[in-house]
């Protein structure tokens, strides 16, 4: 039998090589897992208080650069802070700056408090001025600084003078933006990158970052606002909403942010907390082309929409029916709201064909759009629905390719100023005008509001502009979302914030 | 040697085309990368012209795709794949880390798949090794149901039930061996069921071969006969296993999301959507390399298993000996499916009523209602026609392309590997860029990938068939190429490949729906089945019926396709004496050229 040797040798070879491969794999395996599992063994380290384990929805996109969206992460985790912060009423409150005054229309003087950076150096006026200057030089510029030219100068040891080329009535609000947080000189490198590890001023110090999957924070004992109760924070970034809810339910984390409405019912009611947010979901009607160019049809669409069906039926009560552009989270808005002006009489749809678009990055939006579709169809429109990923939708939406868009929008944006969202979304020159509204009355009302510096009067003017925008019927507010945060039953002191800028603070513990 | 070089060259050309295609993606799809990168960095940021200009300058986009590609290739030479456009971090460590996690997940899934496959064919193995295959009942319904289950559904059920409610294993994370179990099950069970079905399809042929009778006559234990039969059949499945391995490494997005695994699938998805070209190129290149390695490994393994027989043309043909007894199963499945459709027709699949949301099954709503209060029976029934027609059409196209290309293994092998290695989103984006966003685009995008396992299967069977003694005999009698193809090769190859295509039918229906988020394919509120599953998945725990109904009909479809496909034979052509399937039924040695001595498995 000539093939006999084959038949003996052959079956064994793969077996042996399999063994060898397995032996080679073992040391490799360790590298294939993520580091810093649920418990990192640092418990109790650094004195009293246990560590908080937090599941966040959005991973750092730009390695915690404070000039983009990651700034919000730094702020939510209590790592970084700026000169001011927002209080519950949306007004500027002291943070690193103890007080401030307006010297003239273009100049503001901020007096700093005694504070330390996490690297042990003092927060000096020079350091603050340097940090603000670096932010103005960042490319692309931070959203809070768009359209603003700003210079900061140290003025002695404790005061910083901030000048703008145009009068900026909302400068203290602007400086509360997380992207204008202050870091020590060490954080900045020659290429304009900022490294927030151990260089910020907040109650928690970033010590370790594992790509976009987790981060470790330790308590900063010299924090000006007092020592935090938790000895540190282990943050995990879990993009999937169900997975975040599962992490909380299995006790792997103490706090899970942004639990989707669909998962809320699976959480123990004692672990469920919800807060109103400044995020409004609206139906934007294309006022420049298509059937909704006709104000009568826009009015008909507005009349057809039943917002309470959405708040209860889709959001299961985790939303308030749309009242205006600003929802209940903007606490002053309700009392100052005026009736929409100049509304047209609802016309007859007569089977007008409409393309309704939305995106699925927020899981509730396709459901909202389907309900709206049925409501519009009852009013006589012929509706075609288009659901995409947001990045695939935006440019078409801005180009007016759709007749209507269901969109969730944060109405206080990056500055906490109510007027900027009106200017951006509903004026002829607005950069994010998906409704493609260009209306003289609206433009005039918004321009008026932009000029006013007294906070109260600015709010009044903003509400007058809102009435003008709503009068055009180019936007139909659908619901004001509430954000659901899951927190273990023993967790205390979670900072639920309508502006979504805080989560963990000095008083948060488990 | 020259043949190997040609294949290598062809692979390199394909990889180069792919890398260039990625570079041209923004231009082809008319989407500004500055915009997508900005949105990936910070979704709420208004895309003002100044911001976009800054990003363009930062990334050097104005230099044009060619010079960007040149720079990237120049860096690649030194092992530097550039920096991510989104995060600004180094690409190589990021991609390697994700690849490591994905490879580990894939390895674990492969183990699960192997065990599942063996369990699926356990009955055939037991009966076959004891020579009792005749008149057996047809099986396969159960495994076909398993094969039709979508991975994301298995994953979310495992995470919720085993992870959260029972607390036996961690429900999410990727920190050690126990974290690999649930994701590996979610990926390995359906894939193992597919491989198991394919194996089960070939095994009776192996048991019908003369060596099996001889070993039985020698009195070898049944276990050893079974082992040899598996060894005899596995080479035909190896290319498919290779495709499965590579496909899972880059395409397990849903499972990675549900279990929060930092794998390559999610990295590639994010990079493709944000047009983060350096990461996308590096990730794709890594997958294409992996595909080449996997293909090489599969060829090597096939040679180790049946090499000498292949070389010497000494393989018997793996024809299925006998159709299992005619049976009622497909009729029952078909009737059940039909009943659902008929009952659903008078109902309205689109009428929603949010006051009636998530109602359990009742007299008014036999299948319950979904999250918007729509009747699920109506949705499932009305979705059937669209889903089935489209999936059947795509399957048929994939089958034709797969068989035709499979007949040209040297051309199609590397092509199939490369196409299969491309992350699914990227594939869909490239197809959309090439053919535009028309109504047929999703079907084309799915068919463009769906042919690969069928082609690999065809090629693998073809290699074996060409090495059979009867093929050599036919050639010896002066048969022409066309005759050989028609009378010898296709009759042997086509039936198992057709059964394979039918087995993948439910998977194709799901893939079609998974492209929806790119604005391709069925859009809500269409009751297409894949879409039904996807939109109800978040409610799986609160309203299990909402996912159970579409999953059940999909599984029914899978079972129907597989059991009905049992009857797929080569029609109409009368075979010569000794080649008629009936002759194998009793395992009797058919008339064969006397080359049996060369069979390696025979000699033991």
Which characteristics define this entry?
heterodimer, A: 510 residues, alpha+beta, Dipeptide-binding Protein, domain 1, Dipeptide-binding Protein, domain 3, 4-stranded antiparallel sheet, 22% strand, disordered N terminus, B: 604 residues, mainly alpha, globular, disordered C terminus
Low-confidence stretches of chain B: 572-604
CATH C-level class of the domain at 276-482 in chain A is: Alpha Beta
Protein structure class of chain A: alpha+beta
- Estimated helix fraction of chain A: 25-40%
Radius of gyration of chain A: 26 Å
Number of helices of chain B: 24
Per the CATH scheme, the topology name of the domain at 276-482 in chain A is Dipeptide-binding Protein, domain 3
Pick out the low-confidence regions of chain A. Answer: 1-13, 37-46
The coarse silhouette of chain B is: globular
SS element count, helices of chain A? 15
Give average pLDDT of chain B, whole number: 84
Largest sheet of chain B: none
How widely separated are the two ends of chain B? 33 Å
Distance between the termini of chain A: 76 Å
CA-atom Rg of chain B in angstroms: 25 Å
Mean pLDDT rating of chain A: 88
Overall morphology of chain A: globular
Strand content of chain A: 15-25%
Greatest interface by residues involved: A-B, 86 and 88 residues
């Amino acid at each position: 039998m000539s093939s006999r040797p084959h038949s003996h040798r052959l079956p064994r070879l793969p077996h042996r090589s399999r063994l060898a491969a397995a032996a080679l794999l073992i040391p490799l395996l360790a590298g294939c897992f993520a580091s810093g599992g649920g418990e990192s063994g640092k418990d109790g380290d650094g004195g009293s208080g246990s560590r908080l384990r937090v599941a966040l929805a959005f991973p750092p996109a730009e390695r915690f650069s404070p000039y983009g969206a990651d700034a919000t992460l730094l702020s939510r985790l209590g790592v970084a802070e700026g000169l001011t912060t927002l209080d519950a009423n949306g007004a500027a409150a002291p943070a690193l700056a103890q007080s401030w005054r307006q010297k003239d229309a273009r100049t503001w003087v901020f007096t700093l408090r005694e504070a330390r950076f996490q690297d042990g150096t003092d927060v000096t006026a020079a350091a603050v001025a340097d940090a603000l200057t670096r932010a103005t030089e960042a490319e692309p510029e931070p959203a809070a600084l768009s359209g603003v030219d700003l210079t900061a100068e140290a003025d002695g040891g404790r005061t910083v003078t901030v000048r703008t080329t145009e009068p900026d009535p909302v400068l203290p609000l602007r400086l509360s933006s997380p992207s204008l947080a202050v870091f020590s000189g060490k954080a900045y490198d020659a290429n304009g990158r900022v490294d927030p590890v151990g260089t910020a001023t907040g109650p928690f110090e970033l010590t370790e970052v594992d790509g976009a999957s987790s981060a470790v924070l330790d308590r900063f004992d010299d924090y000006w606002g007092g020592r935090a109760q938790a000895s540190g924070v282990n943050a995990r970034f879990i993009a999937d909403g169900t997975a975040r809810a599962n992490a909380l339910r299995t006790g792997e984390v103490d706090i899970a942010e942004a639990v989707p409405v669909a998962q809320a019912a699976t959480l123990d009611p004692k672990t469920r907390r919800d807060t109103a947010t400044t995020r409004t979901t609206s139906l934007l009607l294309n006022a420049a082309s298509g059937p909704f160019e006709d104000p009568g049809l826009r009015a008909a669409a507005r009349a057809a929409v039943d917002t309470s069906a959405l708040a209860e039926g889709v959001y299961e009560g985790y939303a308030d029916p749309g009242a205006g552009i600003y929802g209940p989270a903007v606490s002053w808005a309700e009392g100052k709201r005026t009736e929409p002006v100049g509304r047209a009489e609802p016309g007859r749809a007569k089977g007008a064909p409409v393309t309704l678009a939305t995106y699925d990055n927020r899981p509730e939006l396709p459901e909202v759009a389907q309900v709206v579709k049925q409501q519009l169809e009852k009013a006589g429109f012929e509706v075609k629905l288009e659901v995409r990923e947001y990045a695939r939708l935006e440019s078409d939406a801005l180009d007016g390719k759709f007749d209507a868009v269901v969109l969730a929008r944060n109405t206080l944006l990056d500055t906490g100023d109510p007027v900027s969202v009106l200017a951006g979304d509903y004026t002829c020159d607005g950069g994010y005008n998906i409704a493609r509204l260009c209306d003289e009355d609206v433009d005039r009302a918004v321009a008026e509001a932009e000029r006013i510096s007294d906070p109260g009067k600015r709010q009044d003017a903003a509400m007058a502009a809102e009435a003008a925008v709503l009068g055009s019927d180019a936007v139909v507010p659908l619901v004001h979302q509430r954000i659901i945060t899951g927190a273990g039953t023993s967790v205390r002191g979670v900072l639920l914030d309508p502006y979504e800028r805080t989560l963990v603070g000095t008083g948060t513990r488990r | 040697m020259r043949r190997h070089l040609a294949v290598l060259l062809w692979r390199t050309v394909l990889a180069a085309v792919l890398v260039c295609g990625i570079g041209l993606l923004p231009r082809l799809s008319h989407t500004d990368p500055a915009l997508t990168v900005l949105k990936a960095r910070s979704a709420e940021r208004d895309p003002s012209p100044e911001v976009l200009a800054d990003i363009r300058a930062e990334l050097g986009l104005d230099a044009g795709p060619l010079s960007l590609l040149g720079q990237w290739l120049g860096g690649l030479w030194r092992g530097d794949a550039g920096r991510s456009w989104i995060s600004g971090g180094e690409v190589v460590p990021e991609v390697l880390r994700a690849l490591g996690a994905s490879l580990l997940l894939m390895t674990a899934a492969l183990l699960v798949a192997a065990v599942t496959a063996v369990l699926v064919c356990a009955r055939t193995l037991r009966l076959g090794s004891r020579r009792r295959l005749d008149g057996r009942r047809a099986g396969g319904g159960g495994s076909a149901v398993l094969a039709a289950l979508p991975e994301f559904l298995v994953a979310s059920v495992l995470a919720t039930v085993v992870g959260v409610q029972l607390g036996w294993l961690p429900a999410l994370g990727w920190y050690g061996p126990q974290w690999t179990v649930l994701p590996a099950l979610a990926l390995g069970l359906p894939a193992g069921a597919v491989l198991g079905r394919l194996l089960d399809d070939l095994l009776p042929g192996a048991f019908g071969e003369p060596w099996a009778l001889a070993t039985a006559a020698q009195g070898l234990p049944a276990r050893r006969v079974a082992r040899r039969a598996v060894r005899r059949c596995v080479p035909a499945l190896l290319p498919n296993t290779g495709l499965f391995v590579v496909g899972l490494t880059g395409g397990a997005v849903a499972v990675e999301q549900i279990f929060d695994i930092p794998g390559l699938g999610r990295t590639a998805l994010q990079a493709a959507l944000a047009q983060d070209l350096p990461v996308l190129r590096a990730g794709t290149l890594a997958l294409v390399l992996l595909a080449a390695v996997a293909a090489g490994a599969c060829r090597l393994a096939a040679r180790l298993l049946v090499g000498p027989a292949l070389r010497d043309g000494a393989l018997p043909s793996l024809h299925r000996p006998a159709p299992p007894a005619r049976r009622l199963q497909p009729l029952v499945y078909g009737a059940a499916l039909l009943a659902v459709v008929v009952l659903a027709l008078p109902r309205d699949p689109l009428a929603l009523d949010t006051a009636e949301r998530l109602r359990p099954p009742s007299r008014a709503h036999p299948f319950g209602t979904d999250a918007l209060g729509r009747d699920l029976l109506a949705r499932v029934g009305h979705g059937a026609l669209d889903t089935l027609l489209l999936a059947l059409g795509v399957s048929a196209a994939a089958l034709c392309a797969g068989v035709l290309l499979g007949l040209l293994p040297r051309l199609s092998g590397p092509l199939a590997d490369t196409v299969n290695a491309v992350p699914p989103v990227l594939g869909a984006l490239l197809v959309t860029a090439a053919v535009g966003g028309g109504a047929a685009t999703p079907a084309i995008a799915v068919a463009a990938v769906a042919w690969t396992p069928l082609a690999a299967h065809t090629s693998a069977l073809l290699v074996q068939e060409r090495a059979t003694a009867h093929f050599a005999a036919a050639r010896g009698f002066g048969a022409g190429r066309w005759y050989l193809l028609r009378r010898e090769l296709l009759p042997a190859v086509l039936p198992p490949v057709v059964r394979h295509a039918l087995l993948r039918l439910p998977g194709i229906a799901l893939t079609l729906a998974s492209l929806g988020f790119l604005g391709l394919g069925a859009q809500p509120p269409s009751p297409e089945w894949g879409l039904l599953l996807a939109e109800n998945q978040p409610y799986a725990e609160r309203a299990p019926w909402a996912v159970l109904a579409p999953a059940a009909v999909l599984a029914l479809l899978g079972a129907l396709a597989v059991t009905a496909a049992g009857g797929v034979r080569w029609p109409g052509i009368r075979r010569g004496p000794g080649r008629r399937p009936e002759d194998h039924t009793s395992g009797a040695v058919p008339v064969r050229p006397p080359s049996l001595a060369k069979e390696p498995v025979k000699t033991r």
